[in-house]
Specification:
This protein is α+β, with helices and mostly antiparallel strands. Helix content is 21%, strand content 19%. It has a five-stranded antiparallel sheet with strand order 6-5-4-3-7. A two-stranded antiparallel sheet has the order 1-2.
Length: 207
């Protein structure tokens, strides 16, 4: 087989002007006469490497946490598992305080000294809930323009919880509820919401 020849670069022309010489570059190497009116955006080079998140030593699975932000702020929840990038998987349980299985940022929780025994919990369900695509929302089918126009005055439809999520919630909470009922006053503690009043000093409180 014959070896492939390297791509030949266009040669420059050399012109003589009296005693001097001048090198004229090939037309493909010349500067462009026109340039875009707007600057072309170039992606920035990110030199920082993504480091794995280090959980706080107080965030141990089974610890009762207080949520500080979001829809359920002030609620007490139970930590089930650490997820990548500082995300925590928690549950209320749902029957106790209405908090379902959800992900929360570790920065917006307070870890208490109360711990719940996770013995007997369904590990396969927890692993399934902790996967990336579990909490993604389903794409809504866009309504036709005329149909949407006539439904403006109607009440919005209630969101229906998927049957798979409801069964996963029951499977996780079943053993948790049995362990919670064994501890005195723990059920009432999880039901109560956390709040600060005038004169309270959170830096002096024992969590």
């Amino acid at each position: 087989m014959s070896a492939q020849k390297p791509s030949e670069q266009p040669a420059n022309q050399t012109k003589k002007f009296g005693k001097g010489e001048r090198v004229i570059p090939h037309h493909s190497k010349r500067a462009k006469k026109f340039y875009p009116a707007e600057d072309e955006s170039k992606p920035k080079k990110v030199r920082k490497s993504i480091k794995p998140a280090r959980p706080r030593p107080s965030l141990v699975p089974g610890t009762v946490l207080i949520l500080l932000a979001g829809r359920f702020r002030g609620k007490r929840v139970i930590l089930l598992k650490h997820l990548p990038q500082g995300i925590l998987l928690v549950t209320g349980p749902f029957k106790v305080n209405g908090v379902p299985l959800r992900r929360v940022n570790a920065r917006y929780v307070i870890a208490t000294s109360v711990k719940v025994d996770l013995k007997g919990i369904d590990g396969k369900t927890v692993e399934k809930v902790g996967e990336e695509g579990y909490f993604t929302r389903e794409k809504k089918q866009d309504k036709a323009g005329e149909e949407a126009f006539f439904k403006q005055g109607e009440k919005p439809e209630k969101k229906k919880v998927a049957s798979a999520r409801a069964s996963d919630q029951k499977a996780v909470d079943k053993s948790l509820l049995d362990n919670i009922k064994k501890e005195p006053m723990l059920l009432d503690y999880l039901r109560s919401s956390f709040s600060l009043r005038k004169g309270d000093r959170p830096h002096e409180m024992k969590w």
